[in-house]
Amino acid sequence: MRLLIISDTHIPKRARDLPEAVWRAVDAADVVVHAGDWVEVALLDRLEARSKRLVAVYGNNDGPELRARLPEIARADLDGLRLAVVHETGPATGRDARCARDFADTDVLVFGHSHIPWDTVAPTGLRLLNPGSPTDKRRQPHHTFLTATVTSGELTEVELHTIPPASRV
């Protein structure tokens, strides 16, 4: 099972659209995960229409229309892998321990908010992933997104992708 993991798209405030590399990854993915901060509902409609399966949450920049359609925390069983998605996890200091406590029944937690790519494993085995942002890099060197594979309940082939400046819209 192929995953695309994105967050903090902020469309149309930070970009007119997702970069073409992200749309290609949407088409190739079995599951698209979005960890919030859509900003406008049009992107949700487009991702729902184009994705085979979408697991998504709202973020702090998302208004009532998005909050009415998306949960604060989403959970999914992906071939035996227990996935949770949330927008905010609090400060980086203590994040692994805090999330391991709060998401004890989870194998992988995807989060956003910081626009900073993150990939750690808590002492409990919880994997924490933040894909950064494909449209708003803030102080990061690149716009980014993640892909991964799930096989028999195991997350493998986690890859951080950077988006070249020429391919952004």
Automatic annotation (TrEMBL):
Residues 1-152 form the Calcineurin-like phosphoesterase domain. Its cofactor is a divalent metal cation. Gene3D superfamilies: 3.60.21.10. Keywords: Metal-binding. Its EC number is 3.1.4.-. GO terms for molecular function: hydrolase activity; metal ion binding. InterPro entries: Calcineurin-like_PHP_lpxH (IPR024654), Metallo-depent_PP-like (IPR029052), Phosphodiesterase_MJ0936/Vps29 (IPR000979). SUPFAM superfamilies: Metallo-dependent phosphatases. Belongs to the metallophosphoesterase superfamily. YfcE family. This is Phosphoesterase.
